[in-house]
Amino acid sequence: MAALGRGTRWGARALLPSLQSWELSARRWVRALRRRPVKVIFPDGRVEEQKPAPGKPPRKAAAEASPQERRAPQPPPRPTAQAPRTWEESGLRYDKAAPGDKRLSSAMTIVKSRSFREKQGKILLEGRRLITDALRADAVPQVLFFSRLEYIKELPLDKLKGVSLIKVKFEDIKDWSDLVTPQGIMGVFAKPDATKMKFPETQLHQSLPLLLICDNLRDPGNLGTALRSAAGAGCCKVLLTKGCVDAWEPKVLRAGMGAHFQVPVINNLDWESLPGYLPPDTRVFVADNCGLHAQAQKSASASDHGWVSSHQLMKRHKYEEEEDGEPEASEGWLPELEVQSYDSDWTEAPAAVVIGGETHGVSLESLQLAASTGGRRLLIPVVPGVDSLNSAMAASILLFEGRRQWRAKAAHLSRERSGLGGPP
After folding, report:
1. pLDDT score recorded for residue 59
2. Buried b / exposed e along 302-334 (16+ C-beta atoms within 10 A)
């Protein structure tokens, strides 16, 4: 019995590999049936091919399928260069100024002086809005001083790579700020180049063949307001002659409210090179603030009325020699310019408006340029007894009048085209 039991166990052991092998082959055969199409022959001779159940496609069918069929739907590719959305994703780092740190005072000493700004090519921007406008216009930041990290997080983080970020005390910013209520953030930028800046698309689409020329405009508030009006009216360019206040002076920047980054501003031009910045066939018009054109032509002291201020004029004509009362002595030195009302049509061609400073008025060179381009004086009538208008106010009136005329012409042209294309 023991031998029989041992034999039985030996036989079971010998058959076990065979059974396992048969089960393995059967499983493989079943898998093969599942993978390959099965042909079914019916008694009437009809042959039907059974397709595999839905699931993973057979290898042969997948190999014979077209590239479009083999290509499985995939999620859209993730962009390789994605702008960081949070401070953590940006990987930015900042330094905390220690007591006695001189970096803020050194930077402010440079940007507060016009000679240093021009020599170093740097400007100062203060406030989150102004700094954001500058960053979006592709102005190049160099150093940002801030009192709270939240102020940096509100800026376009992708524009801050490689910028030195320094956290300082609010009291230190307040000591150097020109604002009554400092915003806790100041930035030192490279002086922007109008030819390399990126201006808003909406501003470019609304741009008109209208320019502003500032002549001896020395008040920072007036210049900043004039720049803001130029941006609002859709001017394509603003030209500043030598003698104007620096367009990047902090007070001008505050009064401009970001206009520097909405319209190209070209600074420190002389009258010899200025015509090269005008579009072809531009006519130059001079603002006439008080309507003393006739008196200015006949007066022996025309510069006293704020009309002419030029070193060349002083060299050519000595007013002390003209006190003899001879009108012939003063005739012919002032260019003849026709006077017209500011609301008459003067935008039949690209137009440039010259605004002079309130103290010295427009220069002789601006009158000569207007005469050479077929321009005129634009008279803004005022109530008798009022000397003249504020320079920034006169610029706003003329620029928005020019915009009104351009828009009226565009609407009239649109109506004509629609009338020609409509039914008879």
Report:
1. 52
2. bbebbbbbbeebeeebeeeebeeeeeebbeeeb
- Distance separating alpha carbons of residues 165 and 142, to the nearest angstrom: 9
3-state secondary structure of 103: helix
pLDDT at 327: 45
Please tell me the chain's helix, strand, coil percentages from 3-state DSSP, rounded to the nearest 5: 45, 15, 40
- What is the per-residue pLDDT for 48? 65
What pLDDT does 384 receive?
A: 84
Bridge-based pairing state of the strands 185-190 and 122-126: antiparallel
Give the span between the Cα atoms of 56 and 35, in whole angstroms: 9
Which is it for strands 351-356 and 283-288: parallel, antiparallel or unpaired?
parallel
Which pLDDT belongs to residue 28?
57
Q: Which of 315, 414, 156, 11 lies closest to 141 in space, CA to CA?
A: 156
Strands (E) in 249-301, as ranges, are 265-269, 283-288
Q: In angstroms, rounded to a whole number, what is the distance separating the alpha carbons of residues 287 and 93? A: 52
State the pLDDT at residue 319. 37
* Spans of the chain, pLDDT less than 50: 1-12, 14-16, 19, 22, 56, 60-63, 65, 69, 79-81, 291-331, 421-424
* 3-state DSSP assignment of residue 355: strand
- State the DSSP code for 165: E
Q: Is 184 left (phi over 0), alpha (psi -120 to 50) or beta?
A: left
Q: Are strands 38-41 and 47-50 parallel, antiparallel or unpaired?
A: antiparallel
Cα angle vertex 345, ends 225, 298, to 5°?
80
The model's pLDDT over 195-242, given as tens digits with 9 standing for 90+, comes to 899 998 877 778 899 999 999 999 999 999 999 999 999 999 999 999
Distance CA 167, CA 145 (A): 6
Q: How far is CA 52 from CA 35, 46, 65, in A?
A: 6, 19, 15
